[in-house]
Amino acid sequence: MTRIFVYDTTLRDGSQGEGVSFSLVDKLAITKRLDDLGFDFIEGGYPLSNPKDHEYFQEVRKLTLKHAQIAAFGMTRRKNCRTEEDTCITALLEAKTPIVTIVGKTWDLHVREILGTTLEENLRMIADSVACCKKAGREVFYDAEHFFDGWKHNPEYALETLRAAQNAGASVVILCDTNGGTLPEEIADRVRAVRRQLKVELGIHCHNDSDVAVANTLAAVGCGVTQVQGTINGIGERCGNVDLVSVVANLSLKLGYEVLRPDSVRRLTELSRYVYETANMNFRSNQPFVGTSAFAHKGGMHTHAVAKVSHSYEHLDPAAVGNERRVLVSELSGQSTILTKTAKYQIANDRALMKRILEQVQDLENAGYEFEAAEASFDLLVKKSMGLYVPKFQRLTYRVNIETTSEGKPITEATVKVRVGDKVMHTASEGDGPVNALDGALRKALEPTYPRLRELHLVDYKVRVVNAREETAARVRVVIEWQDGDGVFGTVGVSENIVEASWLALADAIEYKLFKDEETERR
Fold first, then answer.
1. 109, 271, 306, 382: which has the highest count of C-beta atoms within 10 A?
2. pLDDT exceeds 60 at position 275
3. 338 versus 509: which is more confidently predicted?
């Protein structure tokens, strides 16, 4: 089985994406996670870029890594400068990493117009930089920046730059589609041409500006490339880098290459979400392989087929990448969807009940509800339809008051009156906003009876206008994502009043949590 080496540049190239910023602690934590999964090379950054990257190379030496080798990234020496005196080369060597990755110019346009030097001097800059790091005992990877654009405009010179790196001692030459504008057929053609000319191992580094970075990377591997570079989740400058999650999944599960550690592919979903969380970014729900929608089925025909033969509408088993199948409830659902979603209640033979549930879903969605991300609200709907729903509390009244101080600071207070068993609880709470204040007041009323509500935390809050033509009188849909000790779930509320819609979603979350805890205790 052929081994494809995976080079991760999330910490350097990925951090150049808009809105992406990693602390030193973040970078070290991601390094350990990548190493644990068997990534071969982890690029830590450019030692001269900022104090954080400089400190990273000092701290990462204290980690006990199982597999990965750390790479320091930097440029060739400056024009008309002795390599030994160049501050970039010195910083690369002082980082004391086993791998040094040097980026150099391949496109003659960049040499003349950006560097402002001659083609001959650029070749010397490449060779001198690689040779200096090689002589210092480092393994050198050479990133041929703008290779595919350079080849398009001056293939002879582009090839000369690669030979300069190879002859100076680079162990891998990486062909970079820096502008992300090359298509798979061009990638394959040029990789084959280079493969015939060079003896050194080849790598590929693609950006996603034409939305074909994964296809380009796979095409390059098919033509002899043995190292793939990219970032987790494809984060990076402009439209991002190639997504290593998709690349690794395709190489392993579709093409049969050896990548990472054995069984690490099953942890790709975990890795993807870990990096999103660390970068404080929202998950991309439709991300291939690992997104929450990657194996989600909504249409009645689809859900009916998947219930019988899972691979009829799935290109692989979700568990192969650590993901899971989801059957979504919506107005498009058929009875097969309801059957799947209510399997734990064993009502398969009650066609009238299933029809009633489906009709309620369709009516509510017509009114603006959406149950795809609110499965907890759907579960309560089923309980009500089956006659199993006994409310844990009864709302009597609530009030939200917002005042502004003389300094212009808003103060929000909510009062709630609810019946819990035979007691009427009347509580109040201040909050950062109406939802926070209502949540606080309701918890004050309920936690003495239901202490496990302390485990319930809001994760995300989304508001969407349902019927925009009504302008400010339009209905709004509030979807709230919650987390407790057992997992994550969503609830939904719809109303012309955003506070009421929020209350409905909040009340569903508390009811669902209490029912879930009750069922757990019975087991």
1. 271
2. yes
3. 509
- CB count within 10 Å of CB 367 equals 12
* CA distances for 170 relative to 100, 103, 121, 246, 374, angstroms: 10, 12, 18, 28, 54
Residue 195, CA atoms < 13 Å, CB-side half-sphere: 16
Sign of CA dihedral 186, 189, 194, 197: negative
pLDDT per position as a tens digit, 185-212: 999 999 999 999 999 999 999 999 999 9
Give pLDDT, residue 360: 82
Instruction: pLDDT band for 289, please (50, 70, 90 cuts).
Output: very high
Neighbours of 91 (CB within 10 A): 18
How many CB atoms within 10 Å of residue 120?
10
Q: What is the mean pLDDT of the chain?
A: 89
| Kind of pairing between the strands at 296-297 and 139-145 | unpaired
State mean pLDDT over 352-379. 80
**Which distant-in-sequence residues (6+ apart) come within 8 Å of 210 by Cβ?**
180, 181, 182, 183
Asked whether residue 314 carries a pLDDT value surpassing 90, the answer given is no
- Chain segment 383-427, per-residue pLDDT in tens: 888 888 889 999 999 999 999 887 888 899 999 999 998 999 999
CA distance 338 to 354: 6
Total-model pTM: 0.72
C-beta of residue 356 within 8 angstroms of C-beta of residue 364: no
> In this structure, what token pair is assigned to residue 96?
């004391």
Q: What does the DSSP 8-state code read for residue 207?
A: B
Angle between helices 434-446 and 498-522 (to 10 degrees): 40
Report the relative pairing of strands 139-145 and 172-177 from DSSP bridges: parallel
Calpha distance 229→200 (Å, rounded):
17
Query: Any residues with CB less than 8 A from the CB of 63 and at least 6 apart, and which?
Result: 28, 31, 32, 35
* Interacting residues of 12 by C-beta distance below 8 A, sequence separation 6+: 43, 44, 45, 46, 53, 73
Enumerate helices (H) and strands (E) in the chain, giving the number of each: 17, 16
Contact in structure between 192 and 222 (CB atoms under 8 Å): no
Distance CA 165, CA 167 (A): 6
* CB proximity list for 402: less than 8 A, separation 6 or greater: 410, 411, 412, 434
- Transcribe 292-303 into DSSP letters: TTTTEE-SHHHH
